[in-house]
């Protein structure tokens, strides 16, 4: 089984993540931030990864620590579940429309973390989630999981739709990348 369960507690957040890469997309999410819960649920459902996330964060300050730290722990859990990365397709790409918005994700589970993020939001927040935290979440996840990740909103007007298109595009690209390739490590080096 390709799964991982992690807990990370700091003075700002206490986060538990349990994920199963070979799940059916079951989501049990409670971060205290409604829109972020919605996005993590979409991530689980569209990737087919069973994901349980419980967060007790310092929301009296703002949403930053809760969202960034959740990205850190999900990224750590992904890295642990992928182990030596043998037998995976490694790459994934997806375009996802969400009404008038079109999101794009392309990723490489390479062990070389990087994020290219290209999405302009017109509002400071979606519900209780600061729009700038979309990028921070994906940066934290990508760097902890060792993923090279390119995310772009091709176009769109509604910030909810733009963010959701990016989360779903990432989910579909991740689903491709973690799929079984029937072989060993997909690298000329022999390791990732």
List keywords for this structure.
192 residues; alpha+beta; Ribosomal Protein S5, domain 2; four-stranded mixed sheet; 4 helices
First-to-last CA distance: 20 Å
Mind telling me the C-alpha Rg? 16 Å
Helicity, in percent?
25-40%
Q: What is the average of the pLDDT values? A: 96
**Main sheet: strand order:** 1-2-4-3
Q: Which stretches are low in confidence, meaning pLDDT under 50 for 5 or more residues running?
A: none
| Domain module tally | 1
Give me the CATH architecture, please.
Answer: 2-Layer Sandwich
Helix-strand blueprint:
Blueprint lengths: L2 E7 L3 E8 L6 E4 L3 H14 L2 E8 L6 H19 L8 E8 L2 E8 L5 E5 L6 E2 L2 E2 L1 H14 L2 E8 L3 H19 L15
Task: Explain how this protein is built.
The protein is an alpha+beta fold and 192 residues long. It has one domain: Ribosomal Protein S5, domain 2, CATH 3.30.230. The protein contains 4 helices and 10 strands, in the order βββαβαβββββαβα. The strands form 3 sheets. The chain has a 4-stranded mixed beta sheet with strand order 1-2-4-3, covered by helices on one side. A 4-stranded mixed beta sheet has the order 5-6-10-7. A two-stranded antiparallel sheet has the order 8-9. α1 runs parallel beside α4 (159-177) and α2 runs parallel beside α3 (132-145).
């Amino acid at each position: 089984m390709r799964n991982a369960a992690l807990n990370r507690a700091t003075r700002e957040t206490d986060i538990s993540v349990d994920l199963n890469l070979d799940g059916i997309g079951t989501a049990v999410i409670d971060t205290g931030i409604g829109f972020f819960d919605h996005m993590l649920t979409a991530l689980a459902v569209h990737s087919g990864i069973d994901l349980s996330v419980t967060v007790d964060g310092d929301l009296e300050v703002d949403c930053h620590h809760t969202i960034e730290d959740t990205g850190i722990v999900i990224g750590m859990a992904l890295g642990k579940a992928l182990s030596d990365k043998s037998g995976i397709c490694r790459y994934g790409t997806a375009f996802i429309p969400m009404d008038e918005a079109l999101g794009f994700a392309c990723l490489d589970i390479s062990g070389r973390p990087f994020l290219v993020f290209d999405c302009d939001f017109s509002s400071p927040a979606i519900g209780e989630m600061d729009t700038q935290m979309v990028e921070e979440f994906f940066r934290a996840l990508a760097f902890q999981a060792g993923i090279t990740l390119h995310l772009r909103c091709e176009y769109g007007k509604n910030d909810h739709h733009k963010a959701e298109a990016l989360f779903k595009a990432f989910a579909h690209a991740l689903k491709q990348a973690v799929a079984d390739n029937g072989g060993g490590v997909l690298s000329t080096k022999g390791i990732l």
